[in-house]
Predict the 3D structure of the following.
Amino acid sequence: MTLKNKILIILSLCLLLCIGAYFIISRTFANFEKQLFEKCRIEALVGGRVMSEIIDMMIDTRLLTKQQIFDRNYVPIQGSNPQKFRTQYDAVFDKYIQKIEDEFLKDEDLEFAVLVDINGYLPTHNSKYAKPETSDPDHNLNYSRSKRIFNDRVGLKASRFIGPGTLKQLYTRDTGEVMWDISSPVFVKGEHFGAFRLGVSLKHINELKNQMIIIVGMTILVILSITMLMLFLILPRKLYDTDLDIPQY
């Protein structure tokens, strides 16, 4: 085999190894992302079903009427900043719904898990985001988010999604975090009430992505180093001697 063919084979092998390493590592990352979505998709479906059943139960036990549940007369809460609203059912939801929502946050990948109506009204937020209102708008924006109307593009699309299955969107929250929004429709006595929304943190995905970049870079560096070593070993000795102007005896 000629020297030229040997060099071509080594370089081709190097290229194939680099492509193969990138493909394997990227597939591992894609599988992790898929598993995270599938887990949260199931949680959203469960949440939507639980919310439907507990609200139906409220009506059946006459804790609230269907008319009250579908109240769309949002009464502004004076002095709230950002603006908050009351309805005929939000106080009851504070008592019964919030505890269920908080159970979902035992999953560390979730930033929030909330029930919203068809207009994006959020009567009861998770307890960590339902702190008392203060005079500081920044504090309220981050920690007092209950009873607001989230009618941004993502919020409305989530709250008005009627299925089947779940809806996944990339959501930039008004506090700056970027996350997945996975929503499942909620029906009350057969009528579309709104949705159960999950905010899925991308922290673990971003960490894995950074690790993937480092691993890919190191793998390619190792492959290139081995390639250079192999080329060094197969090149005739006289080429090095000539380059170094070492006289031949």
Summary: The chain has a mean pLDDT of 87. Strands lie at 75-76, 85-86, 110-117, 167-172, 178-188, 191-201.
